[in-house]
Amino acid sequence: MNRRNLLKSLGLSIGAAVINTDALAKLSDNTFSYRLADNPLHKSLAKPVTAVTLGAGSRGTVYGNFAANFPDQLKIVGVAEPIPYRNDKYARKHQIPDENRFETWEQVFDKPKFADAIIISTPDALHYAPCMKALAMGYDVLLEKPIAPTEKECRDILKLAKKTGRIVAVCHVLRYAPYFVKMRELIGQGAIGEVISVQHFEPVEHMHMAHSYVRGNWHNSKETTPIILAKSCHDLDIIKWVINKPSHRIVAMGDLKWFRKENAPEGSTARCMDGCKVERECPYSAVRHYHDERKRLYVMDLPEDKSKHSDFIMNRLRTTNYGRCVYRMDNDQPDHYITSIQFADNVTASFSMEAFTSYHGRRTRIMGSMGDMVGDMKELVITDFRTGKELKLVPKAEDVENYKNSGHGGGDWLLVRDFVQAVSQQNPSLLTSTIDESIESHIMGFMAEESRKRNKIMDIQMNA
C-alpha cells in the first residue's frame, strides 16, 4: 500500500474511507505524519470578525496573536486590562484606539455594542459576570476555561446562551489539536474495536506546579478555582470527548502533600533571596528559575530594554509571590490528584494529575476489544491484537505550528479559527466546544472535588 492510498484509508481527509481493525490488520509497520483536512464548511470572509479582549495576560495574548497573524480573519478592536504595561502593549500590537481601551471589564459594557465578539481571558473568578453581560448585550463569546467557579454559574451561562441564541465557545483547546481529533476519529471508526477503558496522565512538571499553583495566580483554590478545574478540566473534557459517551459516576482522591510549611528545609527563609542557606541546591529556587535561567518570565511584564531585566526580575522576586519560598506560601491546591470515572456502556477511565515530574505533556492509553492506542501528543501508536502490527501517527498543525505562542498541540489557534468561522456564519455547529457540549466535563470536575472532600462516590447529573 503506497503512502497516498494509506493516507486515504486512514481517513485523513474528510470523506475518506473508514479505518477499522480489518484495515489495520492489512498494514505494514509504518510511521506517518498527517494534518487535519481543511473544513469544507469554512468560507472566505468578506471582512474580519471583530472582538474585544477582556484580560491581556498570557491567554489573551495567545488568542490575540491569532488576529495579529491572520488580520483578514480576526481584528481586535478593544481591550480591558487593569495593568497599564499589558494594556499599552496589547493596544500597540492591535492598534486599538484610546476610546476602546479600558481598565476594567465593566467599562467595556458601558458603551453600546461595538464588536462582534468578546474574548474573556480574565482570572477564573471573573469569567461569570462579564460573560453574562456580554450575552445580554448580544455579543458572541470566546470563554477561557474554566467556564465559571461554581456549577450554578456554569448552568446560568448555558441557560442565557440558549435564551439569547448567542455563541459561547469554551476554550477546551485540546478538542482542536490534531492529535486528539484523530484519536477520537479513529475510535469512532472502530480502529481498536469497542473501547473498554482509558488511562490518562497529566504530568504537570514540578516547576510548572510551583510557578502556577504554589506561587502563582492559582495557588489558592478559594480565590480562584480548584486545580481539577483550573488545570485539569482540559483532561476530564478530552477523556469524555474522545470516547464520546456520557459520564455517570466519579470518585477522586488527592491532597497537598509536599508544598507545606513543615517540609521547609532547615535554613530556608521566607523568600529565596533573603539569605536562604539552601537556595542554590533547592529544586524550586526562584532566583535560579526566573533570574539565572530566565524561565516563565511572561508573568514579569519585563521592560523592552534588556539591560534592565536583571534588576527588574530581582525586584519582582522581592515584591511578589514569585520570589517566596514554596514551603511558606498560603497555597492549598493538591499536588497530586487521581480520579476514576464510569461512563455509559460500562466504560471506565482513570485520570492522574501529578506535580512531581521532570517532564510535561499528556499521556493517554486507550484499551479496546481488538487493539489499543498509546500516545503522548507527539505520536499516537495503534496496535492490532490479531496481527501485533503497529501504526504510528505523528500529528502536524501545519497552519499554526510555525508561529510563536501556539500551544496545546496547535489547538489554541485552531479553536480561534473555528470560532471566527462560527461567528461569521452564525453557525455554532462549526465548533466542537460550545458551552452545551463542554459543560459536562465541568460538572465532572465539580463532582470530583466533592468526592475528594467528602470521601464518597458522586453521581454526575446533567439534568439537575
Tell me what you see in this structure.
The protein is 32% helix and 19% strand. The chain is built from 15 helices and 16 strands. The strands form two sheets. It has a ten-stranded mixed sheet. A six-stranded parallel sheet has the order 4-3-2-5-6-7, with helices on both faces. Among the domains are: 49-173, Rossmann fold (3-Layer(aba) Sandwich), CATH 3.40.50; 261-323, no CATH class. Helix 6 packs parallel to helix 7, helix 7 (151-164) packs antiparallel against helix 15 (435-454) and helix 12 packs antiparallel against helix 13 (309-319). Strand 6, helix 7 and strand 7 form a beta-alpha-beta unit.
Tell me briefly what this model is.
This protein has 15 helices and 16 strands. By secondary structure, the protein is an alpha/beta fold.
Which secondary structure elements does this structure contain, and how are they paired or packed?
Layout: H1 3-9, H2 21-25, E1 30-35, E2 49-54, H3 58-69, E3 74-80, H4 84-94, E4 101-102, H5 105-108, E5 117-120, H6 128-136, E6 140-143, H7 151-164, E7 168-170, H8 178-188, E8 195-203, H9 206-214, H10 227-230, H11 233-243, E9 247-255, H12 286-292, H13 309-319, E10 336-343, E11 348-354, E12 363-368, E13 371-375, E14 380-384, E15 390-396, H14 411-425, H15 435-454, E16 458-459
Parallel strand pairs: 1-15, 2-3, 2-5, 3-4, 5-6, 6-7, 8-11
Antiparallel strand pairs: 8-12, 9-10, 9-16, 10-11, 12-13, 13-14, 14-15
Helix pairs in contact: 6-7, 7-15, 8-11, 11-15, 12-13
